[in-house]
Specification:
It is a single chain. By secondary structure, the protein is an alpha+beta fold. It has 13 helices and 26 strands. Helices cover 26% and strands 24% of the residues. The strands form five sheets. The chain has a seven-stranded antiparallel beta sheet with strand order 20-21-22-23-26-24-25. It has a six-stranded antiparallel beta sheet with strand order 1-12-11-8-3-4. Strands 5-6-7-2-9-10 form a six-stranded antiparallel beta sheet, with helices on one face. Helix 6 runs antiparallel to helix 7.
Length: 691
């Protein structure tokens, strides 16, 4: 769309009762960011009250019809997503304005590719609008949703405010606080008190108000948005002549989310044998049934208490954003014998309920098809929306963990979804280590959940077994008796894909970056056909291959497991587009790898057929010219590789294959990839070669 254009949503899709709006941008440094806000306006073009101003400290507005979902990774960085349940927007609201603002004197001209996209409830993109000419402004209205004759329409606005969020919000009737000096002094005192008490929170947000008390209205701070202290429009409204100003803790436009430190503070225990008291103890768990019951209750309770976490785990299953309640050990009638699913998740939004039954397995126990089928039938009869299975296994596209029958005569369709414990851990890590949550209590709850899930006795450890076919396939490759078309090779390929997906989840949670497997297949191709081809290659070559892409990394990390030699190879191809003589480029690379292992293999990639020279880092440090092509071929890049012995067992024990893959990827990323990403040490001009 172009600036000023408008379009009716009903003309674009049938599924526009709820829509998703995403705001995105990028920056050359990767550090630029902005805060998203939404204003709900009445027929006069004003907010009814400050609660109609939706921002990070007030993420839900309009009786739950508008909710900020936070950032989600994309191929180009990340986007801020906003969920709109248009059918539930209050009747008094005629227009919804979608905006973003920057803080601390920053301007939108420092960001690139400002864009808005709008998708329907099925996830299909309907609208894209690129915002231009926003160089000198610190707040921008990207677009607006408005009603016309009972129909919702979208208008591409692209209007900037040099006065920042304060000017934008004041235009629409939001009160502006202006006690910046008082708040700064108070915040400084609170931070000093936190340091004295040894609290581990990066910056503590206020705890929720007690139940039954009205929430304080959302106010925009003048200090961080550029509004002047003596601006009459910035003065807070008073109820009457006798009303005295009441200092209130105001939200800032700079984000105040709680994250937990990576390293724990020194314990006050007398000795290391003392164990910290835990909210979710694991020492008493003795049976699989106890583990399943405890794990289900722990996860579901934290989902209900930490909105960001509950939303992360259910948004992809079609659940709305609203008030969540969770239950365990629920008895439901089913023929002559009642069924007891491990849990139930219910979300209420605008008077409507979304319900999912939960079936949990721990310790590598497989899901039982008859159990899942019974829950699907119960859900269909009762009008529930989904059945969610939760286990250590990882679901693959085109290869369901459980085959269920769907009665085509039923009008109500029930969706079957699967979560791996590894994904639950990943989402908890992303929130408490990198993105933050609303307050300190929520951060602590997530930390306790993470401690529980990662404990060896919880049974929630993700994919941990390469399957019964692993040993026969490995032996068949070793003695060259494995033939193409063998079903056992296909099973190994599927489990290898599960392992690679889990490696991506684990590494992404540790780094706080988007880590995804790379699939070398045409879009829309059958995943079953692709896996069958990989199984034939395994029988022929005896190797398992995978590639993963790490956000911000200059290349793709490749993993090769050679079942014939028993070695794991991790490698990355680093492009070399820098100017200069070939020897200068080689020396720059070796300087950048100053802390890399001596056994790192470096291969020069050249333009044209044939391979370039190669050698180990230990040999190349004193003689970097050894990997400069002698025939004058153009250097296009370098391949960096590490080799490691491969575990033979099918499990995750120290001698197991899964453990060896995890260790190889961790070592390669920490000792090689992280150094390639870092800038090379600066050298004086006299140290640079002259020819």
């Amino acid at each position: 769309m172009v600036k000023g254009a408008n379009v009716g949503l009903a003309a674009l899709s049938e599924d526009v009762g709820s829509v998703m709006v995403s705001l995105g941008w990028s920056s050359a440094t990767g550090e630029g960011d902005a805060d998203v806000s939404v204003l709900l306006l009445d027929g006069a073009g004003k907010v009814r009250s400050d609660v109609d101003f939706c921002f990070y400290n007030n993420p839900v507005a309009g009786n739950g019809s508008v909710q900020l979902l936070g950032k989600t990774p994309t191929a180009d960085g990340s986007e801020d997503r906003i969920s709109f349940d248009l059918d539930a927007v209050p009747e008094e609201i005629d227009k919804v304005v979608v905006a973003a603002s920057r803080y601390g004197g920053s301007r939108f001209g420092e960001l690139d590719d400002l864009r808005l996209t709008l998708a329907d409830s099925a996830g299909d993109g309907l609208v894209r609008f690129a915002v231009e000419e926003a160089d000198e402004v610190s707040a921008v209205i990207f677009g607006e949703l408005y009603r016309r004759s009972g129909e919702w329409k979208f208008r591409a606005v692209g209007q900037g405010y040099a006065s920042g969020l304060a000017g934008l919000a004041t235009d629409y009737g939001v009160d502006i606080d202006d006690d910046a000096a008082e708040e700064d002094a108070r915040e400084q005192g609170e931070q000093e008190q936190e340091r004295e008490q040894g609290q581990g929170y990066a910056e503590e947000a206020p705890l929720p108000e007690p139940a039954g008390q009205p929430a304080a209205p959302a106010r925009v701070p003048a200090q961080a948005t550029g509004a002047r202290a003596d601006d009459a429009s910035a003065a807070p409204a008073q109820d009457g002549p006798a009303a005295a100003p009441k200092p209130a803790r105001r939200p800032r436009t700079a984000k105040k989310k709680v994250t937990l430190p990576r390293t724990a503070r020194k314990s006050l225990a007398d000795n290391e044998s003392w164990r910290s008291a835990r909210l979710f103890p694991v020492s008493a768990l003795k049976s699989d049934r106890e583990r399943e019951t405890r794990a289900t209750s722990v996860v579901l309770s934290v989902m209900a208490q930490v909105p960001e976490f509950g939303r992360r785990l259910t948004a992809g299953f079609g659940a709305p954003a609203g008030r969540m309640e969770t239950f365990t050990e629920v008895t439901l009638p089913h023929g002559e014998s009642p069924r007891r699913p491990d849990g139930v998740v219910r979300v209420e939004r605008a008077g409507k309920l979304w319900t999912a039954l939960v079936e949990t397995k721990t310790n590598g126990n497989a899901l039982k098809p008859d159990q899942v089928q019974a829950y699907m039938d119960i859900a269909a009869r009762r009008g529930y929306e989904a059945v969610i299975t939760l286990s250590n296994d990882v679901a693959l596209d085109g290869s369901p963990l459980v085959d269920v029958r769907i009665d085509g005569r039923r009008k109500h369709k029930v969706a079957l979804w699967h979560l791996s414990w590894a994904e639950v851990v990943h989402q908890a890590q992303m929130l408490i280590r990198h993105e933050g949550v609303g307050n300190a209590a929520h951060a602590w709850l997530l930390q306790e959940l993470l401690h529980y899930l990662q404990h060896e006795n919880s049974g929630c450890h993700g994919f941990q077994n390469m399957g019964a076919a692993w040993v026969p396939v490995r032996r068949g490759i070793d003695d060259e008796t494995l033939c193409q078309g063998d079903a056992r090779a296909l099973e190994v390929i599927e489990n290898w894909e599960r392992l690679v997906r889990q490696v991506c989840l684990r590494l992404g949670g540790e780094l706080g970056q988007k880590v995804l497997p790379v699939q070398r297949a045409r879009r829309g191709s059958d995943p079953g056909v692709r896996r069958a081809e990989l199984a034939d290659h395994l029988c022929e070559q005896g190797r398992l291959n995978a590639e993963i892409r790490i956000e911000g990394t200059p290349g793709v990390l490749a993993i090769t497991a050679d079942l014939r030699t028993g070695k794991l190879r991790t490698s990355i191809e680093v492009p070399s587009a820098e100017p200069g003589y070939p020897l200068s480029r080689v020396k720059r690379l070796i300087r950048r790898l100053a802390e890399a292992p001596a056994d790192l293999h470096i291969e020069t990639l050249v333009d044209g057929p044939g391979a370039g020279p190669r050698g180990t880092l230990e040999r190349l440090r004193p003689e970097p010219a050894d990997i400069v092509p002698k025939d004058g071929a153009q250097i296009t890049g370098f391949r960096l590789s590490l080799f490691k012995g491969m575990g033979s067992g099918r499990g995750s024990a120290e001698t197991g294959f899964i453990r060896s893959v995890d260790e190889a990827v961790d070592r390669f990323h920490a000792q090689v990839v992280a150094q390639v990403e870092a800038p090379a040490p600066r050298r004086s001009r006299s140290e640079e070669p002259t020819g």
